[in-house]
Every structure is written in C-alpha cells, then in structure tokens.
From TrEMBL:
<protein>
    <recommendedName>
        <fullName>Bacteriophage holin family HP1</fullName>
    </recommendedName>
</protein>
<feature type="region of interest" description="Disordered">
    <location>
        <begin position="68"/>
        <end position="89"/>
    </location>
</feature>
<keyword id="KW-0472">Membrane</keyword>
<feature type="compositionally biased region" description="Basic and acidic residues">
    <location>
        <begin position="77"/>
        <end position="89"/>
    </location>
</feature>
<keyword id="KW-0812">Transmembrane</keyword>
<keyword id="KW-1133">Transmembrane helix</keyword>
<keyword id="KW-0732">Signal</keyword>
<feature type="signal peptide">
    <location>
        <begin position="1"/>
        <end position="30"/>
    </location>
</feature>
<feature type="transmembrane region" description="Helical">
    <location>
        <begin position="40"/>
        <end position="59"/>
    </location>
</feature>
Length: 89
C-alpha cells in the first residue's frame, strides 16, 4: 500500500514538473531550413520503424512461448519452402 502512495506522489510531481516546464517556455525565433526538417522527419521515421521491428520480434517470441512452438522468422520460413520444393522434385 505504501508503494502505491509513493508512486502516486511521484507521478503527480512528474506531471506538475512537465506542465511547469512546458508552460514557462519562451519563443526561440529559430529558422528551420528544409534540410533540418528532412533530418527531423528521417529521425522520426527511423524511430518508428525501429520501434515496430523491436516490438514485432518480442511479439513473435511471446506467441511462440504461448503456443509452444519455435519463433520463426520470415527468412527462415521462405528457405524451408524452397528446400521442401527441391525435395519434392
């Protein structure tokens, strides 16, 4: 019970600190050229792609753990199909 109270206090303190920090900013008067915008966009796209890959890999491991099978990658599965097709000939 004590840990929950401490966690609530920390959460409230963090929320208040974030609100204070974002509400007390002053204008930057900065110029962002197209190169800077492109760099920011590239970083965002890379972060999203990396995050999706990270969560996909752990999702496949979790599903394999629940179903009792081995986690299979798409590359490995396609290699098996080619090998099976060669054996059938």
């Amino acid at each position: 019970m004590r840990k929950q109270v401490d966690m609530k206090k920390r959460s409230i303190s963090l929320a208040l600190a974030v609100i204070f920090a974002t509400s007390s900013t002053s204008p930057a008067y900065a110029y962002l050229d197209p190169g800077t915008g492109s760099l920011i966009l590239q970083g965002i796209i890379g972060a999203v792609a990396g995050g999706l890959y990270f969560f996909r890999s752990y999702w496949m491991k979790a599903v394999a753990l629940i179903t009792g099978g081995k986690p299979s990658s798409s590359k490995h599965a396609s290699t098996e199909k080619v090998e099976n097709a060669d054996r059938e000939k």
